[in-house]
Amino acid sequence: MVATTVHLMRHGEVHNPDGVLYGRLPGYHLSERGLAMAHVVAAHLSGAGGGLLDGVAVPGGPRRDVVAVIASPLQRAQETGAPIAAAFGVELGTDPRIIEAGNHFQGMTFGVGDGSLRHPEHWPYLRNPFRPSWGEPYREQVDRMLAAVDDARALARGHEVVLVSHQLPVWVTRLALEGRRLWHDPRRRQCSLASVTSLRFDGDRLVGVGYSEPAAALLPGAATVAGA
């Protein structure tokens, strides 16, 4: 059988001084820390790790056999994927199926106090956390992500491919592949900024799921706004 690996990467930290849930809104770019995260992951995957990059430790490891890098159309994902594509000498591709989840609270601050939850007109959107009622159903996210994974696996058959996406779509895809329920506590997601969830296939069969944080040295103090 042919071994293929599809890496689902979450983008780096975003410049978001107002703390809004930016969702699919345009114009949200990586922060300086986020750009550094992207370059650290690029160095790690391309085998240039084991040292420092602008003072940040880059985990060592062999050069991965990446033959394609594909990102969500959102700016933060494109900026994360660009240095990785450059490190492997490939053109950055775009796939709208790996975009962020749709969310009613997009563009708002989310919470009590001065956030959107203090306004009763938003409360009906919280009625069903299992679907969820405030945004794109988990199952629909999984279906579009898996379709993109299947196409990426065919494209990179026998090699590796990186798909740069967003926390929630990556996490629910992992839950589905591991046979776990899709509704969950967002605080328990294992999908940090610039993390890599690796799906290993033997032919068409999934044989393993791995998780790594090549940019872990940059995580302390990083933004963790819900829905990033």
TrEMBL record:
Gene Ontology molecular function: phosphatase activity
CDD domains, sorted: HP_PGM_like
Assigned GO CC terms: cytoplasm
Signal peptide location: none
Domain of life: Bacteria
One Pfam family this sequence matches: His_Phos_1
InterPro entries per the UniProt record, alphabetical: His_Pase_superF_clade-1, His_PPase_superfam, PGM_Phosphatase
PANTHER family the UniProt entry points to: BROAD-SPECIFICITY PHOSPHATASE YOR283W-RELATED, PHOSPHOGLYCERATE MUTASE
Protein name: Phosphoglycerate mutase
Organism per entry: Cellulomonas composti
